[in-house]
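Re: that backbone. Tokens:
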């Protein structure tokens, strides 16, 4: 089966799923990114049901950028979505310095991490070799 990949970029400094207005902003961004029909639900529990239903329809991948800035409640919410048996969800946490440490502080989430991968900066020669592979315009 081909994985239908939906990448949702969540800028952690803007979206905190902790409570109140930041949680609502986060839910609205997810609602838009998932291209869900209708109006966004007004209550978090209604949104949770809608989101779980959407995540059960087909495989999805969330790419969470700047993960080092997420708080414990945000991580708990991702774990909550991932643990739902009906969802077909993969989550990729990407972050800068300290990301690994922050993720490791959340044992209920970090115990579910399949692979920990660290990437290092490309050298200038590696950039010249790799970038043309992404698009013909850069091959020249």
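Recovered sequence:
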């Amino acid at each position: 089966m081909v994985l239908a990949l939906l990448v949702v970029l969540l800028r952690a400094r803007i979206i905190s799923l902790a409570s109140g207005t930041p949680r609502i902003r986060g839910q609205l961004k997810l609602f838009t990114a998932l291209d869900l029909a209708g109006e966004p639900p007004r209550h978090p529990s209604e949104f949770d049901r809608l989101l779980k239903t959407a995540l059960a329809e087909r495989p999805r991948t969330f790419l969470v950028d700047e993960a080092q800035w997420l708080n414990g409640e945000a991580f708990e919410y991702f774990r909550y979505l991932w643990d739902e048996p009906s969802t077909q969800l993969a989550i990729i946490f990407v972050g800068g310095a300290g990301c690994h440490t922050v993720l490791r502080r959340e044992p209920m989430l970090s115990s579910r991490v399949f692979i920990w991968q660290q990437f290092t900066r490309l050298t200038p020669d590696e950039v010249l070799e790799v970038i043309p592979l992404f698009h013909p315009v850069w091959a020249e």
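The CA atoms of residues 31 and 51 lie 8 Å apart. The longest helix spans residues 20-33.
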